[in-house]
Amino acid sequence: MLNSKQSAIETMKKRQSIRTFDTQNITTAHLQLIHEYINNEENLIGPFGSKGSIKLIQVTNHVSDKGIKLGTYGFIKNPQAYLVGVAENKKYSLVEFAYTFQNLVILLTKLEIGTCWMGGTFNRNSFEQEVKLGEGEFIPCITPIGYPNQKQRVFDKALRYVVKADNKKSWDKLFFDAAFDVPLDKQKAGLLEVPIEMVRLGPSASNKQPWRLLLTQDQKVCHFYIEHTPNYSSKLGYDMQLLDMGIAMSQFELACNELEIKGNWSVENPELPLPNEHMEYIVSWETL
Ligand SMILES: Cc1cc2nc3c(=O)[nH]c(=O)nc-3n(C[C@H](O)[C@H](O)[C@H](O)COP(=O)(O)O)c2cc1C
User: Fold this and answer.
1) How far, in Å, is the centroid of ligand 1 from the Cα of 118?
2) Would you say the CATH fold of 168-287 matches that of 8-156?
3) What homologous superfamily does CATH list for 8-156?
4) What is the mean pLDDT of residues 110-114?
5) How far is the C-alpha of 133 from the C-alpha of 107, rounded, in Å?
6) Domain boundaries, the chain
7) N- or C-end of the chain: fewer Cβ atoms within 10 A?
8) 101: closest CA among 254, 274, 226?
9) What CATH code is assigned to 168-287?
C-alpha cells in the first residue's frame, strides 16, 4: 500500500519513462487506490480551477473489456492498463491538466508502477472509443501502466537514445538569475534549489525540456516560461509543450510541499525582456 512518508523528491529522482512492462497484473489493491484517486475531484483540479478527468482502462493483450484494440504502434509492451487523460484544448486547461496528471504519475512511481507519458505515439481514435468526450474536450495524453520489466527492449534503449532521454539540460540552459542573460547558479537559488532541480528532472515531450525559469533577486518569486520548439506538435492540433509546463509545476510544488516551502501560483506576467520570440510567459510561484 501507499506509504505517504515516501519522499516525493527521491521518487522524482528515480522516475523514468517505462515502455516495457511485466506480464503481472496490477494488484487489486493498487487498482482500487487508482480508482479512488481518479474519482476524487480534488485530485483533478489545477491551481487555477480547471478540471480535467482521467479514465482507467484495463487491457489484456492490448484489447480492452469492450473489445477495442488500443494501439501504441509497438512503442509499449505488455501494458496492463491505460490511464487516459481528458481535457479542454485551451492553454491553461492543458497546463493544469498536466499538473494533475503528473501528480498521479509520481504517486504511481511511489507504488513502483511504471508510466510513460504519451502525447503522440498512440492511436487516438481507438482511445476515443473508450472515453466519453464532452463538448470541446479531447485526449491530450495517455500513459500505459504496469509493473516495470527490468529488462528493457533494444527498442526502448534505441528510443531513449534517439530522444536523448538521459540527456537532461544543465542548469545554465534552463534557469536564470533575475534576467535571461544571467544563468542561475545552484548556490544562488536559496530554498528553491531542490524544487527547481525537480523541474529539470521531469519528463517532457521528446525530451525537449522547454521550461525556462527565472528567479527574482530576492529568491522568492520564480517565473515559469516556455521556450516553444517551432511547429513541434502543430499537426496534432494542440500545443503538447503546454503539458510540459504543467509537469514542471507539479514537480516544483511536490518538492516545495516536502520541504515545507509555502507559496502560491499566480498568472502575473512581469513583462521582462525575452531572449527570443519563442519564449512565452506561463505562470509564477511566489514563496510566502
Ligand atoms: C507531454 C509528453 C508527451 C510524450 N509523448 C510520448 C510519446 O508519444 N511516445 C513516447 O514513447 N514517449 C513520449 N513521452 C516520453 C518522453 O519521450 C520522455 O519523458 C523523455 O524522453 C524523457 O525521458 P524520461 O521520462 O525517462 O525522463 C512524452 C512525454 C511527455 C511529457
Assistant:
1) 6
2) yes
3) NADH Oxidase (3.40.109.10)
4) 97
5) 26
6) 8-156, 168-287
7) C
8) 254
9) 3.40.109.30
